[in-house]
Structures are given as structure tokens and as C-alpha cells.
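Kindly go through one protein, given below as sequence and C-alpha cells. The question is how this chain folds according to its C-alpha cells.

***
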Amino acid sequence: MDAAYTGSRISLLRKQNNFTQKELAEKLHVTDKAISKWERGLNYPDLALLPVIANVLETSVADLLGLEQKIPDSTIDVINEIAQSEKKRLLKTIHQYLELAIILGVVTILNKLYISYTGYIGESFNVQFWIEGILLALALTLITNGIWLLIKYKKFFV
């Protein structure tokens, strides 16, 4: 693989599709500086981002990498399958975080309603108070992690 070839190919296809570096960057959820580095051959795009770039530029991953004649289609298919399985794994992880957050949120609300209904009585106040606090902290942590994962891996879900 040659970074200079890949960069010049991205540049050529970007111009053929009438995209500026900034427009392409927005479509790929990267910075225009990253596009510039790719086009100058200073850096490669992430492996998982290659199918997205190829799709936006209406070409194949093999063409972007200059491997059209060197790598059989089955190898390219395997690379695409790996990218898709990684996307599915990330979606499943985010889904699990958000499910746990919802469950803990509901349990926290039910606990709060129970405490409000029964009132704080003697020693049970401390136990109920700490249970409520721990459940709320866990729910907020899971929600925050789920949102962080969605933001961090946004480029995979375009």
C-alpha cells in the first residue's frame, strides 16, 4: 500500500465528485486537515473508514488503495465484512449501555416513589438514600458512556 497513491486517488475522486476537502470531511465526520494529510500522502485513513470513503467517492476500497489488480475480490469482501462486524459490535455495545441505563433509571424512579410513599423511617433512611444514590450514579454513568460511544464512533453509523 502506498500512502501517496491512496492520497492522490482520494484527491482525484473528490474533485471528480465536485467536493471540497471540507465537504468531504463533513460527509466522513473527520476534519478537513485529515483529508489534506491523506491527499498529501502523510497519513492513511482508518481501516474501518475506507468502505465509507469508497462509498462517498463512488469507488471500491481496492481502487482507493491501488490494489485493484493485486488483491482478489474475496479479500476485499473479507475487509468489508470485518468493518461491518465491528460496526455491529459497537452498535450492540451502545445498545446494551443504553438498556442498562434505562433499567437503572426506572429502578431509581421506583425506589424514589417507594421512599416518598413510605417515608424515611429510622435507620432505613441511610440504606434507602445510599441505594438511590448508587443507582442514580450507575444510570448516569451508563448514559454518559452510551452517548460518548455514539459520538466517538459516529463515523461508522453514516
